[in-house]
User: Fold this.
Amino acid sequence: MASNGTLIEIEDLTKIFYTDEVETHALSGIHLTISRGEYVAMSGPSGCGKSTLLSILGLLDTPTGGKYLLNGNPVENLSFGDRSRIRNQEIGFIFQSFNLIGDLTVEENVELPLTYRAGMPSPERKRRVKEALERVNMAHRMRHYPAQLSGGQQQRVAVARALAGSPSILLADEPTGNLDSKNGEAVMHLLADLHREGATICMVTHDPRFARHAQREVHLFDGKVVSETELKKLEEEVEA
Amino acid sequence: MLLRELRYAIRQLCRTPGFAGLAILVMALGIGANVALFTVVRSVLMKPLPFKDPNKLVELYEHSNDGEFAFNTVAGGVYSEWRKQNRSFTDLALLGEEEFNLAGAGDQLPEKLRGSDCTWNLLSTLGVRPALGRDFTAADDQQSAAATVLLSWSLWQRRFGGDPGILNNSIYLNGHSYTVIGILPSGFAFPDAATQLWAPVYYDKPVSWTAALDNHVFQVVGRLRPRFSEEQGKADLSVISRRLHDQHPEDAFISSSAATRPLLEHMVGDVRKPLYVLLAATFCVLLIACLNVANLLVARAAARRKELAIRVALGGGFWRLLRERLMESFVLAAVGGGAGLLLAYGTLQWLVHLRTDMSRVEAIHIDGMVAAFAVGLIALCALFAGMISSLSTDSRRLLSALQDSGRGSSAGLSNTRLRKSLLAVEVGLTVVLLVAAGLLLKSYARLRSSEMGCITKNVLTMRIGLFGGRYNDPAQQVNLYRSLLEHVRALPGVQSAGFVQAVPGQGYWGDSSFAIGEHPPLPRGQAQFAIARFADPGYFAAMGIPILRGRSFDPSKQLERADEAVVSKSFVDQYLQGEDPIGKHLVVMGHNMEIVGVVGDTRYQASELPGPMQYFPLFSGAQNNGTLVIRSSGDVEQLALPVQRLVAELDHNLPVSDVLTMEQLLGKSTLDASFNATLLLGFAVLSLLLAGVGLFGVLSYIVAQRTSEIGIRIALGAQREQVLRNVLFDGMRPALLGLAFGLIASSAVVQLIRAMLYQTQPLDPLVFAAVAAALLLVATLACMIPAWRASRLDPMQALRAE
Assistant:
């Protein structure tokens, strides 16, 4: 995957949550472009909207307003089925809490997204699963269940699952949030390796140490993209 | 401490009224059905008869020589010889069924009553004494005695207002004056609850009946001597029968052996199997109910995992937690059991009123033993449901609930597996009940659709008996029959009318032996017989019974001149095959009857195949009771009152009874089958409902447990229909497993009800297929809602739930 063109382009994206009589503006006019092969970190304080943005990027959620082009195609108003198909083929998710399925083996967990693709023969799925697990050094744990693995190992399996479908982009939501520093570093190195091999990655983190692994850092505050200088100033104002 | 736990359990249940209400309702249904059926089984089958030393009482029968009637009724002459010659019984008593017309008095209408002609020693043999007045003496039981009668408690209360002044006063039965000498105790029901009065048989019946050796019309009950067994008694009587048989080698109807059964078995033998089947069915319902409640409690335990974990963390030991959990199930079972007892009481009241015809129905009461059974059942249900749910939560694993759920997204796997297993068992039991109910229902449908051989629509029937008084004269009888039929046929709306001893579906009533005049005499000791009916010439047309050859009786021939006979097709097939029956002669009890017609076959009972039947002219004056049939083109029930008025005009002392349309009459004759099928179907539907609710509950629980997993699947690109399919299959798996288990179990269990089926194979593929289809449909419907909800999950919310 080379850095040849725009993969994601969003313009004036808004997301408003309505709860009872309260209107919460989670995202307010976000403009963002992610190119192929780019490694972007989104950071900001808790509640700034970074996970909401990631969910919209991952087509798990729909924006209230604005435009979202993925691979040059508008995706903000797609049906549930089309969004599922694009998620399955174009997007790989890595969650903070790994989100592996407890009663599936490591192999079955990694194979899961491939089973949702119509027409992919079983040998092809097995090959991809093996490759993905080898890439994260977990092939030897294929027959294990998630509960039999450490947190770091579970997250590596989650990465393998995200990779197995050869997606256009990997979306990682606080991938080190549930890991100790050693395992956290290991996962970050794995993502860096993947990026070097050409993967496009968009990662949400609130930890500046991990954000530095990315090529570019996007700061969010109160649902808006702000510069690093602006962010520091705003944070100081909040603290004061 | 227990009080505190009880308070806590009640508080917990009050906080979740929906759960508590559902669990209590399920328990109430299960326990109520069981208590009701147990009460019936105990009262009817287990309670000793209300007689002195009831285990020494034996019903005695003749065993017919051709083996066709293994437990045949007894001839009066045989009874006399048994009584005189036996050494095994302290006494034997004889009784026969009789109909009595009780004359009206004042503003009371005449009434037809079921009674019994019995030997004077009946009560002493049973060990019963009248509640008021005196018992019969030997002096009362002879032709020369004054007429005496004993009344049942209920007749005395209903008809005579419980007035003791009726004692030693006269009432008019069949046109004769009888002195009431005693009132039997309340609850005395022998030979059955419908019997309202008892008269001495040797006074009431002609010697030709009571002395005959081959006229099998009586019931005999005997009391064994101390240290004599039933087998010894039977052997003793058989020796006497053999001697009688050998003394009369020319009479094929004198049996050569006797048969016996305990009196209780004789009285309740017919209902024993159906009652045990129904009891087993209610036990299945209870088991299903308990499994359902256990399932609810397992789900509740899963929902309270965190709370339980805190208790464990705070030092709550296994036993302490178990006790707390059991207390909750005890409260549920106790309240459910209480409601179940009320339900059982109501059900029993309904049953007693609905099935007055059932043997020993008067004995059905909730007593101390039933109460103890109910308490035991409540304790058992509480333990069963409570233990299953308690054992589903391992206190060591519980502690992990306090930690963050980081190890995969399928929490409560063991719980889910347990619930699915319980559900599979529940579905399996439901299938067994459904198959049994389906078979009984099909059998009942076959029974009801049996071709009776006559018209059953728009036909009204009513019983009329011309007993005693002026009707002792056959000419008077014939006059009344003629006059009655003439007037009824003239009523507006009446298409045709006839009179017969008993219509199709009304029972066997009686047979008679015959010889065919044109045939050589049968070898000594051989005989032929066929069901006998007296009918008027218009009967066949009124009932739509086809005349296949010849004609009906000549209406102008009556009394001694009425020497014609009509036979059925089966009769010709069996006794006159290849011959022209018309013009042949039947020799019956010395009378020579010319066969003038052949009619279509009819069934005396819906469940019996048609057999040979011979019809004799009603106008011969030899039959003093029977059924009037009226056919109309319109609503025949409208004719009931005008016809009864007509009868009253002809003779105001002539009671009419059993006014029923043919359809009602056939419904009554198949009441047992209908009752068993309906009740079992009710239990099966209840079980199906419980299983459906169980499936719905389990799958909803599974979906709730799997919310985050489903969210992950959707996040990974699963389409809605893929999620729906996945969840649906998850729910259907225990249903399919239960279905397979249930079908296999059913194929064995249905053999137990084989005897209750009519023209239906126990392994009827249609019933099995229908049950499988019904269960799959209900299971799919029950699973569809949670599966559809799962497929509509918002992935964002689902993942947030994690």
Remarks:
- Chain B is about 50% helix and 15% strand.
- The longest strand of chain B covers residues 89-102.
- The two ends of chain B are 38 Å apart (CA to CA).
